[in-house]
Design brief:
Blueprint: E1 3-11, E2 17-24, E3 29-33, H1 40-55, H2 63-73, H3 80-101, H4 105-108, E4 117-125, H5 128-141, E5 145-150, E6 173-176, H6 178-196, E7 202-205, H7 212-222, E8 229-231, H8 241-248, E9 253-255, H9 266-270, E10 276-277, H10 286-298, E11 303-306, H11 314-326, E12 332-334, H12 340-345, E13 346-348, E14 351-353, E15 356-358, E16 367-369, H13 371-375, E17 386-389, E18 394-395
Parallel strand pairs: 4-5, 4-12, 5-7, 6-17, 7-8, 8-9, 9-10, 10-11, 11-12
Antiparallel strand pairs: 1-2, 2-3, 4-15, 13-16, 14-15, 17-18
Helix pairs in contact: 1-3, 2-3, 3-10, 6-7, 7-8
Bound molecules: 2-keto-3-deoxygluconate (KDG) and magnesium ion (MG).
């Protein structure tokens, strides 16, 4: 079975998505997500200009060989653009292989290790009453685990929540105050626990805003509220920084949504400095690379927590769900449902029911792209916000 064609689809049904469609000479079609929020066209060009010409006439079944060919063959390794492009090819080829086998992808990954995939939803509000209302709304939708983000008194925006299409043509600029945040967050979780009791799994995303010692302080302050995890508490390019956090707190740690290879986790996993791996299939080289990463993590009792915001397309989401169902060291899956417009373009077979996701039984990954619908939504430039301290210094967003 040879690759006969490959097309890059850029569409904006409420937010931008980049999808690779691969077709084979016997008529099978596979899809891979290559969306890199705020830098979408760089990946589209990488694919169109440098990858698609290499794919034509290759054996569609040779997934590992194609992965190595694109990774080692480029000479220039790693990086979000390269790894998103490789991920799109990899997922499209797994989609094709599973369709050729007549099975949902999870069967090719070893079969189901569980009946459903525990998902967490997002609750956020400018103040405590809004936060509590938002948690109630997620629970009514069926979520059994909830990430809680809150506005900080004195700051205008709820931090870490970007507007997918700000339409200003430039990144929004936000203001940040670490000391105000550190004072406020424990009071939010105290109130949430008082309202909802001890059972509800609660998560919190720090969005890389603290130094290791500040992160250690927050982890300790949150211990009474028994968090499921504290996410991206400090930028982890400096992997050793997590040793300091770990020495001071038993709050579980999740890291890695901005990582793109297993190498970014080497120290973190080997020294058991984190509890959950946050990579997305879309940004970390696809199913092939993620499977290896999770198997390595399993040796150290580190679990999965695949990134699932709305800037991962339904194609990327579905690929993650097949892994979630198959691997032994599954932890939790982030799930932010897409808009109706997005689902008009991406037809999915995955389901969300009573707090649990399932990828469905359709052969392949179970998502198809309606190209006529995609063509109705032209690409619109959009950026993630940029963050500054009160004195104007650029800070992590
Ligand atoms: O593109 C950036 C988003 O994916 C990110 O802000 C979402 O932190 C995020 C999360 O945990 O979902
Ligand atoms: Mg995050």
């Amino acid at each position: 079975m040879r690759i006969a064609g490959a097309e890059v689809i850029v569409t904006c049904p409420g937010r931008n998505f980049v999808t690779l469609e691969i077709t084979t000479d016997d008529g099978l079609v596979g899809y891979g997500d290559a969306t890199l929020n705020g830098r979408e066209l760089a990946v589209a060009s990488y694919l169109r200009d440098h990858v698609v010409p290499l794919l034509i006439n290759r054996d569609a079944h040779k997934i590992e060989d194609t992965w190595q060919y694109l990774y080692r063959g480029a000479y220039w390794r790693r990086g979000p653009v390269t790894m998103a492009a490789i991920a799109a090819v990899d997922v499209a080829l797994w989609d094709i292989k599973a369709k050729a086998a007549g099975m949902p992808l999870y069967q090719l990954l070893g079969g189901a290790s569980r009946t459903g995939i525990m998902a967490y939803g997002h609750a956020s509000g400018r103040d405590l009453p809004e936060v509590l209302d938002s948690i109630r709304a997620r629970r009514e939708e069926g979520f059994r685990s909830i990430r809680v983000q809150s506005g900080v008194p004195g700051l205008d925006t709820i931090y870490g929540i970007g507007n997918p299409l700000d339409r200003t043509g430039l990144p929004n600029e936000e203001v940040w105050d670490t000391r105000a945040y550190l004072r406020h967050v424990p009071t939010v979780f105290e109130a949430v626990r008082n309202e909802f009791g001890p059972e509800l799994p609660l998560l919190h995303d720090v969005h890389h805003r603290l130094t290791p010692i500040q992160a250690a302080k927050l982890g300790k302050a949150l211990e009474p509220y028994d968090l499921f995890w504290m996410e991206d508490c400090t930028p982890a390019e400096n992997q050793e920084g997590l040793r300091l956090v770990r020495q001071h707190t038993t709050t579980p740690l999740a890291i890695g949504e901005v990582f793109n290879t297993a190498f970014d986790y080497q120290t973190l996993i080997r020294e058991q400095l984190i509890d959950y791996v946050r990579s997305a299939v879309t940004h970390t080289g696809g199913v092939t690379a993620m499977r290896k990463l999770f198997d390595h993590a399993a040796l150290y009792q580190v679990k999965s927590g695949i990134h699932g915001p709305t800037d991962i397309s339904p194609v990327g989401m579905a690929a993650g769900l097949h892994l979630d169902l198959a691997i032994h060291n599954f932890g939790i899956q982030e799930f932010a449902p897409h808009s109706a417009e997005t689902y008009e373009v991406f037809r999915r077979s995955y389901t969300f029911d009573d707090g649990y996701l399932h990828p469905g039984e359709t052969p392949g990954i179970g998502v198809t792209v309606d190209k006529d619908a995609a063509a109705k939504f032209d690409y619109e430039p959009a950026y993630l916000p940029v963050n500054r301290l009160r004195d104007g210094t650029v800070h992590d967003w």
